[in-house]
């Protein structure tokens, strides 16, 4: 799968298909969105919020959660606010989120196996 993706990317770059996505690092709408990494949201989330490339910082993790003051989601939000000009933050959850039913015990035993 990765080789297929790399080949696709070579063509994408050669044809300059990236040009329509060019923007700078500052979100135009001064917005950060924290949401789940669920694959069902890849295109759905920006479409449902009316966001285009460059409008917002999209931060995704399992469950769309901030677990502690020192986790990667919080670090991303701090950078978005203090370095990139974000003024508003949205936290967007979704139905049937697998992360809501995660169990440390389950993962522990899976990882050991």
Keywords:
4 helices; 35% helix; alpha/beta; 113 residues; 3-stranded parallel β-sheet; 3 strands; single chain
How does this structure look, described?
With 113 residues, this protein is of the alpha/beta class. 35% of the residues lie in helices and 15% in strands. It has four helices and three strands; from the N terminus they run H-E-H-E-H-E-H. It has helices spanning 2-14, 44-49, 72-82, 104-112, and strands at 31-36, 56-61, 88-92. A three-stranded parallel β-sheet has the order 2-1-3, covered by helices on one side. Strand 1 (31-36), helix 2 and strand 2 form a beta-alpha-beta unit. The longest helix has 13 residues, at 2-14. The relative contact order is 0.18.
Alpha-carbon distance between the two ends: 25 Å
Helicity, as a percent range: 25-40%
Mean residue pLDDT: 93
Residue windows where pLDDT falls under 50 for at least 5 positions: none
Secondary-structure element order, N to C? HEHEHEH
For this structure, the quaternary state is single chain
Total number of β-strand segments?
Answer: 3
What general form does the structure show?
globular
Integer-rounded radius of gyration: 17 Å
| Sheet of most strands | 3 strands, parallel
Strand order in the sheet with the most strands: 2-1-3
